[in-house]
Specification:
disordered C terminus, 6-stranded mixed β-sheet, 4-stranded mixed β-sheet, alpha/beta, 16 strands, single chain, 416 residues, 10 helices, 18% strand
Length: 416
């Protein structure tokens, strides 16, 4: 099961640990004692994680709220002991089942919600420098564009408010259409609650740079502008011209009702005032209320096994050069749970083949003596001789090839 955890903010942990396995159950005991169930495996992921089937690309679930849990893969059903096969004619059945094998699946996790505050802007605007100035994050910083190629996360605490900042890689004009690195990273900013727009005021045309990013947000999703947005006019310490550009842009944006702050991420001038406003805005938003962006419907929180509800009579037969392959979720599970160490299991299997119509279908498909028959992982040679003596001989030959002691009947039964 996957469970949303508000204390997790990234999927970085899954880079080092790929395989996750639940512990198996225990064997049953005498006096009709059931074996212990296997442990439930719970994997914590950040809130906002989308879980997909890697092969089919089907969305299995989307976890939005802290504590929300979805079971994706069901454990195998426990096998029945000999007491379950007791009848009025067979008081002490020498027969028991194996437990059903657990399912395996490759899962793909996508985290669209990466932060509370999305730090956006053009390449080389100083986003990473600002993140490093306000948090313990140490992103790569250099004086050339696209230094950041993956989102950097930083945890900021201000006025008893904890916020996760995401340094979204630089956006270009045309990013909403896939130009540059923008398309992938606009998606990361899609679920942030607050946008912090960093503008490089050392650029003479900083107004155009600001408007270009805003246009890309609108083209990508008009709802992006419904988020609170603060503008950080950065690099005012570079020159007097940069400081003048910041003041001019601040006056222009003030007419649009946008809060702007003149800062220097390097010298930290004006950063405290900016962070106080960010914390105030974040606090005013209240508790996070996320809504699913996908059309996802799951019947129950507990996943179903593939063979649940299936009938053994539902099968197909494929004639291949190697063998006749019997396919069907129910009959394949039946074979997998059959304990072939018991001779009684062979007799039960023969009865099931006849009653389900598989025996008749194999004959109609052309199966003859000695032909290989494959059901799931179980392979056997077809024989038109259904006498119990012949069945016992086949079972005995297979048992002699395996190490261990015989289970079930101590003496082979009389021929029918």
């Amino acid at each position: 099961a996957f469970t949303a955890d508000e204390n997790m903010h990234s999927l970085q942990i899954f880079r080092k640990k790929v395989h996750h396995r639940a512990k198996g159950g225990k064997h049953g005991a005498g006096s009709k004692c059931n074996g212990a169930n296997g442990d439930h495996l719970e994997i914590n992921v950040p809130a906002g994680t989308i879980v997909r089937d890697s092969q089919t690309r089907e969305i299995l679930c989307e976890l939005l709220r802290h504590g929300e849990s979805k079971t994706i893969i069901a454990g195998g059903r426990g096998g029945r002991g000999n007491a379950s096969f007791k009848t009025s004619k067979n008081k002490v059945p020498m027969l028991a089942e194996l437990g059903e094998e657990g399912q395996e699946m490759w899962i793909e996790l996508e985290l669209k919600l990466v932060a509370d505050v999305g730090v956006i802007g053009a390449p080389n605007a100083g986003k990473s420098s600002l993140l490093a100035a306000v948090s313990a994050a140490r992103p790569k910083i250099a004086d050339y564009p696209f230094t950041t190629i993956v989102p950097n996360l930083g945890l900021v605490e201000r006025d008893y408010t904890r916020m996760v900042f995401a340094d979204v890689p630089g956006l270009l004009e045309g990013a909403s259409e896939g130009l540059g690195l923008g398309f992938e990273f606009l998606r990361h900013a899609e679920r942030t609650r607050l946008l912090l727009h960093v503008v490089d005021c050392s650029d003479k045309d900083c107004l155009h740079a600001h408007d270009a990013i805003v246009s890309e947000l609108v083209l990508f999703d008009e709802a992006m502008l419904d988020k609170p947005r603060l503008v950080a006019l950065n690099k005012i310490d570079v020159s007097e011209e940069a400081r003048a550009n910041a003041k001019k842009l601040k006056e222009t944006l003030k007419l649009e009702g946008i809060d702007c702050f003149e800062i220097s991420a390097v010298s930290k001038e004006g950063v405290d005032e900016l962070m106080s406003k960010v914390a105030e805005t974040h606090k005013a938003l209240g508790p996070r209320q996320l809504e699913s962006e996908e059309s996802i419907e799951i019947e129950t929180s507990r996943a179903k096994r593939a063979a649940d509800g299936a009938r053994i009579e539902d099968f197909t037969i494929e004639d291949t050069p190697y063998a006749f392959i019997v396919k069907g979720t129910a009959v394949e599970r039946f074979c997998q749970m059959t304990n072939w160490d018991y001779f009684e299991s062979y007799k039960r299997f023969a009865r099931v083949l006849k009653m389900s119509g598989i025996e008749k279908a194999l004959k109609e498909a052309g199966a003859g003596d000695g032909d290989r028959i494959l059901v799931g992982k179980f392979e056997f040679a077809w024989s038109n001789d259904h006498r119990e003596k012949t069945l016992y001989t086949t079972w005995k030959e297979r048992r002699d090839e395996k190490p261990g002691t015989q289970q079930g009947s101590r003496h082979w039964p009389h021929a029918m």
